[in-house]
Amino acid sequence: MRVCRQCQSEMIEGFNLRVKGAAYGIKIAKGTGIFADRIEEEPKVAICTKCGEISLYIEDIDKIREN
Ligand SMILES: [Zn+2]
């Protein structure tokens, strides 16, 4: 369970992040260019229904720690 950092309410998790007008999502990378250390997991979004705060998170963080 994720808790809103603004109002400490429970957040709804599992939303997908999509760029408006585009069919692809957002990828996260460290560094730039062809040597960038890419994270293949797509970030997920959690939403606070009380104050509207959104929070980005990576679902499978263990996989990233291993790299
Ligand atoms: Zn909130």
From TrEMBL:
Name of the featured protein: Nucleic acid-binding protein
Domain of life (superkingdom): Bacteria
Organism from which the protein derives: Geosporobacter ferrireducens
